[in-house]
């Protein structure tokens, strides 16, 4: 999965910007947003509870339990976005938590959460929200679809 995500991050800003352009009303120039760059991925899953994660979860016998191949894989990425609100440049850092699942036809986005922060970091990021239908999720879904179709190699 790692090589797939690495390649996706290269293309993600252009895919996201196309999603933004398609969703924009004709003639609207207020609040123009652009994804500038997608950051380096992190693959270490968040703990599922105190001291637990898919890699370190314990069975009833006290033995480690490996993550099942059909369980969604967690990937953390960030994006830097520019917004030109009321003629002022505002840069925003988004933190994305993707859950990717492997199917017979290839990888798919199962769910996604995002947090919004300022750039450069100043204030703490906002709480996570379900962003499974947001711009970045749509861009990821489109990229994965193109990948499954053989458009991306």
Outline the structure in words.
This protein is of the alpha+beta class and 153 residues long. The chain has helices at 2-23, 135-148, and strands at residues 32-38, 73-85, 88-103, 106-118, 129-130. The radius of gyration is 17 Å and the shape is globular. Residues 52-66 have low confidence and may be disordered.
Rg is 17 Å
Low-confidence residue ranges: 52-66
Structural class: alpha+beta
* N to C succession of SSEs: HEEEEEH
Overall pLDDT confidence? 83
Main sheet characteristics: 5 strands, antiparallel
Strand content: 25-35%
Share of helix, binned: 10-25%
Count of runs of 4 or more consecutive helical residues: 2
Span from first to last CA? Answer: 14 Å
Number of strands: 5
Envelope shape: globular
Biggest sheet: strand arrangement: 1-2-3-4-5
Oligomer: single chain
Concise synopsis of the structure shown:
This protein has 153 residues and is of the alpha+beta class. The protein has two helices and five strands; from the N terminus they run αβββββα.
What is the topology?
Elements: H1 2-23, E1 32-38, E2 73-85, E3 88-103, E4 106-118, E5 129-130, H2 135-148
Antiparallel strand pairs: 1-2, 2-3, 3-4, 4-5
Helix pairs in contact: 1-2
What labels describe this entry?
single chain, 153 residues, alpha+beta, five-stranded antiparallel β-sheet, 33% strand
């Amino acid at each position: 999965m790692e090589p797939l995500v690495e390649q996706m991050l290269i293309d993600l800003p252009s895919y996201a910007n196309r999603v933004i352009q398609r969703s924009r009303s004709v003639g609207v120039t207020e609040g123009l947003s652009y994804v500038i760059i997608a950051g380096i991925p992190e693959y270490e899953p968040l703990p599922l509870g105190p001291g637990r994660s898919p890699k370190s979860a314990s069975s009833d016998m006290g033995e480690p339990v490996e993550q099942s191949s059909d369980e969604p894989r967690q990937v953390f990425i960030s994006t830097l976005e520019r917004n030109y609100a009321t003629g002022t440049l505002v840069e925003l850092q988004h933190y994305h938590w993707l859950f990717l699942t492997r199917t017979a036809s290839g990888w798919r986005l199962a769910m996604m959460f995002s947090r919004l922060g300022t750039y450069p970091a100043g204030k703490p990021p906002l709480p996570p929200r379900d962003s499974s239908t947001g711009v970045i999720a749509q861009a990821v879904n489109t990229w994965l679809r193109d990948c499954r179709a053989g458009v991306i190699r």
